[in-house]
């Protein structure tokens, strides 16, 4: 445990688990008009796309601020090595089913998805979609996604953003 007080919102969080304040992360997502893109919006169904895509569940979209906060509190930062963008991944069950999968050529979902991924999680075009937890975990195992490590500064228990050698506190101080 490493209780840190957020300099922005004043909330307290465990910096050995969250590299950045989860409250502020959720707030930053709430402000984005494109957080649920039409591609991943269940209210556009039935809708065919040229390739496989997933939609967020109607329940999650109906309670989006609450769902987003739960995502921020339940997820983990990963680096997508294919494009060097950071994502936020939730691999545990949430209060709503995250979403479902629409196969290539189909117009409606055929199966539920158990995980959530926020693409470009720290950028203005961050957006949320539903994923298969096992598939992302396979990507962590094969190196497609990289996890954050503990800060390399002696005695610091904080977690770093993926690919960073030091935590946010020691990175901004450097
Ligand atoms: Zn904060
Ligand atoms: Zn540190």
Domains (count): 1
Which percent band covers the strand fraction?
Answer: 15-25%
Helical percent range? 10-25%
Count of helical regions? 5
Average residue pLDDT: 95
Shape annotation: globular
Bound molecules: zinc ion
Largest sheet: 5 strands, antiparallel
The SSE string, one letter per element, is: EEHEHHEEEEEEHEH
Number of distinct beta strands:
10
Strands side by side in the biggest sheet: 9-8-5-4-10
The rounded distance between the terminal residues' Cα atoms is: 23 Å
Which value, in Å, is the CA radius of gyration? Answer: 17 Å
In terms of structural class, how would the helical and strand content be classed? Answer: alpha+beta
Low-confidence residue ranges: none
Descriptive report:
The structure is a single chain. It contains five helices and ten strands. By secondary structure, it is of the alpha+beta class. It has a five-stranded antiparallel sheet, with helices on both faces. A three-stranded antiparallel sheet has the order 3-6-7. Strands 1-2 form a two-stranded antiparallel sheet. Helix 1 (22-30) runs antiparallel to helix 3 (64-74). The longest helix has 11 residues, at 64-74. The radius of gyration is 17 Å and the shape is globular. It starts with a strand and ends with a helix. The model has no long low-confidence stretch (mean pLDDT 95). The structure holds zinc ion (2 copies). The site of one zinc ion has 7 residues, from helix 1. One zinc ion is lined by residues 6, 8-9, 11, 21, 23-24.
């Amino acid at each position: 445990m490493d209780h840190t007080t957020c300099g922005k919102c004043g909330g307290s969080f465990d910096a050995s688990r969250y590299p950045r304040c989860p409250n502020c992360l959720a707030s930053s997502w709430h402000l984005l008009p494109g957080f649920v893109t039409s591609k991943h919006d269940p209210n556009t169904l039935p809708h065919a796309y040229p390739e496989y895509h997933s939609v967020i569940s109607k329940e999650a979209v109906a309670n989006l601020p609450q769902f987003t906060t739960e995502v921020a509190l339940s997820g983990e930062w990963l680096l997508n090595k294919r494009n060097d963008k950071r994502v936020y991944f939730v691999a545990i069950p949430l209060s709503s089913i995250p979403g479902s999968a629409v196969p290539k050529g189909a117009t409606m979902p055929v199966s539920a998805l158990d995980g959530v991924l926020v693409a470009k999680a720290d950028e203005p075009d961050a957006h949320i979609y539903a994923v298969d937890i096992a598939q992302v975990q396979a990507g962590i195992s094969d190196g497609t996604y990289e996890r954050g490590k503990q800060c390399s500064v002696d005695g610091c228990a904080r977690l770093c953003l993926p690919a960073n050698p030091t935590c946010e506190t020691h990175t901004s101080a450097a």
